[in-house]
Amino acid sequence: MMGFRTIQPHARRPLGRAGPPLPIISMPFSSVQPADASAREAPALPPEQRAEAMRRLLRGVPDLFRIQTPDDLFAALLRHACLAFGTERAFVAAYADADLDELTAEVEGWMTTRGDVALTDRPLVVRASTGGAQPGSPLDALPPAVRAASLQAVRSNALWTEHGIAMPLRLGTRAVGALYLDVRGPLAQDPEIPALLMETAATALEGALLQAMTSGGRVGELPSRAFVLRRLRQSLRSSARRGEACSLLRADVDAFAEVNRQHGSGAGDLALHAVARMLRFWVRDTDIVGRWGPDEFLVVLPDTPAGGALKLARRLCEQTDQMGVESAGRHVPLRLSFGAASLLPPDPDGIGVVDTGWLDRLAAGLLERAGASLDEVRGTAGVGDIRTCTWSEMESPADAFVAAAMARLPR
After folding, report:
1. What is the torsional sign of CA 261, 264, 267, 268?
2. CA-derived radius of gyration, the chain
3. Which of 84, 106, 136, 305 could make a disulfide contact with 57, Cβ separation 3.0–4.6 Å?
């Protein structure tokens, strides 16, 4: 069995500050060998060693809960896990960002959960490492024993200690990755410390992913598409409860590709920021503005009837008449086209339990109708005819708008 050098724990530091990175060492994961029977029958972990490992682990908890990107969280998790378990060979493997965003949206409830079957075809990627595994490389590139232990932890959604410690990284109740530590002996067989690390990591990961989804960050710091869809479903549920209408606007920047071609991508970025600021300025605090596509925006209008939505769309359209940005000393004019849709107030006597599947259909049908309204005027700096619908229409499986939209929702 191979020996390990113990990493000394960092000195205490103020909360919220990341510690120094662990050194990248030369010992590759290819040297990891399957555990033999004697390793699996290791003696119990002495109480003082367990207590020290717990202290090391708990000392790093504040670093896991500061505002940070998922990759920063994976690095912090790896750093403190190595300190707690006394190893220098470890890595985190997880699904790609796009898959994590989609799974976060499912856990948060804006999209119907499809079950774990859909996860089996998604490749795991190394997201952070302290040894021979390179971040960004596929899990399949690692040695068989390491790969098998990590995959077993994900597929079983449980701690796996056959070849070192492999523990699942959970989002809700679903495993979305694995933390592998090349640790053998009593520490690898003690269930308490890995269990504490697993639960702490799950809570921190959900927070980091939600922060990444809701921050938007690139275009006027607007929320992402996934977050806006989640809020749309919440607004539809609230409308059902209060007996109010719920409306939606879709806005498209006219000739955006031409702006990029003639003036460069920098001018395009300025244009999108200007549109984002304008939309946020004119809507209410309770309305939700977010990205929908490369040059398209979405405005969710809770408790807003069709007339109010149409009035707002026309006002926003008028604001773009004199709108433009300056890029490289040139004025770049901007125009927006708007589509609108509205779900009429429900019949108080006709609404039963509004379940997740129904909310998916309502959101999909409303988005599709607003898109059809926008398609009528796209590129004309105009406002399309508002499309209204009733709850009973949206409930029907034969509704063409709902069927088309459900086919295009992320699955």
Report:
1. positive
2. 26
3. 84
Domains in the chain: ranges and CATH = 29-215 (3.30.450.40), 225-408 (3.30.70.270)
Question: pTM of the predicted model, to two decimals?
Answer: 0.50
CB distance 53 to 187 below 8 Å:
yes
